[in-house]
Amino acid sequence: MNISCLCNAVQIRISAEPIAQFWCHCADCQSVHGAAYVAESIYPATGVEIVSGETTRFALKRTPRISCARCSTRLLVELPEIEMRAVNGYLLKDLFKPALHIHCSEAAAPVKDGLPHFATKPAAFGGDDRMVDW
Ligand SMILES: [Zn+2]
Ligand SMILES: [Zn+2]
Predict the structure, then answer these.
(1) Which letter does DSSP use for residue 125 in this model?
(2) How many angstroms is it from 45 CA to the middle of ligand 1?
(3) 41 CA distance to ligand 2 centroid (A)?
(4) CATH fit for domain 2-125, picks 3.30.1330.30, 3.40.50.720, 2.170.150.70, 3.40.1160.10
(5) Which tens digits make up the pLDDT trace of 61-73?
(6) What is the pLDDT of residue 81?
(7) Ligand sitting nearest the alpha carbon of 55
(8) pLDDT 10s digits, 76-127
(9) What is the β-pairing status of strands 48-52 and 11-14?
(10) Ligand nearest to the CA of 8
């Protein structure tokens, strides 16, 4: 499957199934996206490839993020410590099917829906499985 940034300058090929899709409420995502929370879909790093277009790389705190050099669409987050890449779920349109919320302890506001709300992350992703009360 190929996806692109909003100006179509950058093309990205996704050749793996997502490991997880979720809403992230971390302070880093909030600042970089200018949003209360963001859509993320994570894949094995080898399953996500930038095939064309110029990109820029920027880390606000610790997480390197890759954007289109022309339209600034947020494209990817690099997660080298776990050999994964997170794709901006917004670019997946109907294929973004979030199953959980993470980093809810940093949330700007509660988002009440039927999904699990992890305070940090699931233990399977290096978190502690704690939940928040909303
Ligand atoms: Zn672009
Ligand atoms: Zn985040």
Answers:
(1) G
(2) 21
(3) 11
(4) 2.170.150.70
(5) 878 999 999 999 9
(6) 85
(7) 1
(8) 999 988 899 999 999 999 999 999 999 999 999 999 999 999 999 999 888 9
(9) antiparallel
(10) 1
